[in-house]
Design a protein that fits this description.
The protein is α/β, with parallel strands linked by helices and 334 residues long. The protein has two domains: 190 residues, Quinone Oxidoreductase, Chain A, domain 1 (Alpha-Beta Complex); 127 residues, NAD(P)-binding Rossmann-like Domain (Rossmann fold). It contains ten helices and 16 strands. Strands 3, 5, 6, 7, 8, 15 and 16 form a seven-stranded mixed sheet that branches. Strands 11-10-9-12-13-14 form a six-stranded parallel sheet, with helices on both faces. The N and C termini lie close together (11 Å). This is NAD(P)-dependent alcohol dehydrogenase. Pfam families: ADH_N (PF08240), ADH_zinc_N (PF00107).
Length: 334
């Protein structure tokens, strides 16, 4: 089989396409013919060597494909089923716990940049009905992260205000989920072209954060001084102060990303005086993914796919991701 693997010490120039023996499913596993994967920031950090991995690690946490062989004792899936990876194969349900979150594909274990993957059946879910492999491959990391922030750690209701940052996969899924739930959405970006696209997707208001650096106050103004119920916070320390400023009394911030750095000042007085809750979000459980898929099927949501790359051009796909020219998800066809 063909795989895309990473040689030490990492870096896009050290991604190589090679041929390896086809895997065989062990007891409790299924053999999946992978049809598509999609890029996430986590995958990029791994590829750059920011998260150390063994030499030759097969990359990518997201994967969608078809079961071609079933190992001993597997009843969850059968040959021919269309399946989807989970970011944490060991996190079935319940709250996050360390032992559930150790085996991330493409990081702690081999991932889905391969034509064939033998994976534990309990670490997979079905794909949404009627979705292509490319569409489904956008879900396990980005979509589930947005879903957990909005619907698990918070519980968005019709009429609520949600603020999203940027135009990456998590933020666009958050916009789509929020609108499907009847919420009102304020979206930020520094690109007028991308702001126009966000409006087309359903954003009620958009803010150019370069033109309006105090966008937290602008969000308060848009909501008639009340503030937003939920912020999908992907920037980290460089945007946290504005996210706090945007929130209503008792609002919620889903802290998801660190695009502006891994540490910084936080206006703690504003945080506690407004009784704001901050939840750290690292994707979610298999049960949450199954709940999200059910909601997707009932709402008719479809992912926004920016670009397609073949497996052989995985390094080029990461370079395109780094350029920040994409809008939505970048898919790797396998």
């Amino acid at each position: 089989m063909k795989v895309a693997s990473l040689k030490k010490p990492g870096g896009l120039q050290n991604i190589q396409i090679e041929t390896r023996d086809d895997p065989k499913p062990k007891a409790g596993e299924v053999l999946v013919r992978v049809k598509a994967s999609s890029l996430n920031y986590h995958d990029f950090v791994v590829a750059q060597g920011g998260i150390p991995t063994p030499d030759g690690r097969i990359l990518m946490s997201d994967g969608a494909g078809e079961v071609v062989e079933v190992g001993e004792g597997v009843t969850r899936f059968k040959k021919g089923d269309k399946v989807l990876s989970t970011f944490f194969p060991g996190w079935r349900d319940g709250p996050p716990e360390l032992d559930k979150m150790l085996a991330v594909p493409g990081d702690r274990i081999d991932g889905f940049s391969a034509e064939l993957v033998a994976a534990p059946a309990e670490g997979l879910t079905r794909m949404p009905e009627g979705w292509s492999f490319a569409e489904a491959a956008t879900l396990p990391c980005a979509a589930l992260t947005a879903w957990r922030g909005l619907m698990v750690e918070n519980s968005i209701q019709p009429g609520d205000w949600v603020l999203t940052q940027g135009t990456g996969g998590v933020s666009i899924f958050a916009l789509q989920f929020a609108k499907a739930a009847g919420a009102r959405v304020i979206s930020t970006s520094s690109s007028q072209e991308k702001l126009d696209k966000l409006k087309e997707l359903g954003a009620d208001y958009v803010i150019n954060y370069k033109e309006t650096p105090n966008w937290g106050a602008k969000a308060k103004e848009i909501t008639s001084g009340r503030g937003v119920d939920e912020v999908i916070e992907i920037g980290g320390p460089g945007t946290m102060a504005q996210s706090i400023a945007a929130c209503r009394i008792g609002g919620h911030i889903s802290l998801i990303g660190v695009l502006t750095g891994i540490s910084g000042e936080v206006p703690t007085a504003a945080l506690f005086s407004s009784n704001i809750t901050v939840s750290g979000i690292t994707v979610g459980s298999r049960q949450s993914q199954e709940d999200m898929i059910a909601a997707i099927e009932s709402s008719g949501i479809k992912p926004v796919i920016s670009d397609h790359f073949p497996l052989e051009k995985l390094a080029d796909a990461f370079a395109h991701q780094a350029s920040q020219k994409h809008f939505g998800k970048i898919v790797v066809d396998i």
